[in-house]
Amino acid sequence: MAAAVGPIVLVHSEGDGGEPWIEALKAEMPGIDARVPAAIDDRSRVDIAITWQLPHGQYATYPNLALIQSICAGVDHVLEDHERPVHVPIARVVDPFMGRAMTHHIVLQILRWHRQLDRFEGNRPERIWPPSFAFDADALQVAVLGLGHLGTHLARALQALGIAVAGWSRSPKSVDGIEVSHGADGLDGLLRRSNVVVCLLPLTTETEGILSAETFAKMPPGGLIVNVGRGGHLVESDLLSALDTGQVSAAALDVFQAEPLPADHPFWDDRRIYLTPHIASEVNKATAARVFADNIARLRLGEPPTGLVDLNRGY
Ligand code: NAP
Ligand code: GLV
Description:
- This protein has 9 helices and 12 strands.
- It is of the alpha/beta class and 315 residues long.
């Protein structure tokens, strides 16, 4: 008797290949037939692709693809593939774990800057004990660009810490007494009073390059830029110029135009830049696998998956 054949889930993750994701998925769905691309003999059996940076042109080689499930929250890595079959829906990860992790990272970076931790670290070799001075807890005014799943979590946490925060989104919305503006006009006023600007936007044609000289010039001098969205949001040369003039005093960067950050990139040696290697909110395999399993089950039952991307908006 011929072995039963069913649909296959393709799993690819640039970096670790995909095997650890298959293991996590199998913990949720023991019977699932999930494979890395090299183990797929019949591409017509693949109905779902769970991916992070599948090489461009590959989606088009699976004729019965019915869902592209991004391994992460951002889907720019899928949308950049212009050969991708455009009728196939794309889902992203919306996982409360990531909201907590991202908030922890950003709060750490904002307070590291505000409480001048690097200055005190720098004092240690000379055993310097500076005169006491009080930090002004009311001096922070944080603008969160992108008030979606992650930005809303952050804004609520900052509010709970007593830190002044306001948000910016594409469409009008209200969030728990937090001031939210939208559109280009709304951004201007927000920037003018914010000494910390956090980018938690998706990378789209509208948001690319948003952290530019023009944006920095609208902020009060000496502020902090936090970019945890995508490297394409930041005009890196504009940031270096703004750091040199003092318009911006520091930047916490987790994402870069080129990743891994090239060894000869000036950011590596610049102490005004708090540099992390795209780990602000790394996807948690165990909790994300639950999202993937749920979406596989939904798709195969003919139900809509969660986290669907609006292809017209690009996120
Ligand atoms: P999300 O829920 O889709 O939220 C996106 C937010 O951006 C929404 O508030 C949206 O406005 C706003 N937005 C989009 N385009 C805009 C525009 N042109 N003008 C103003 N606001 C705009 O996304 P998320 O889950 O919070 O994730 C955000 C991004 O974080 C991801 O796309 C990814 O790039 C990045 N990320 C980075 C890491 C890391 O480790 N560094 C981890 C996870 C995610 P509306 O509310 O009006 O739709
Ligand atoms: C990570 O960068 C993500 O988009 O989840």
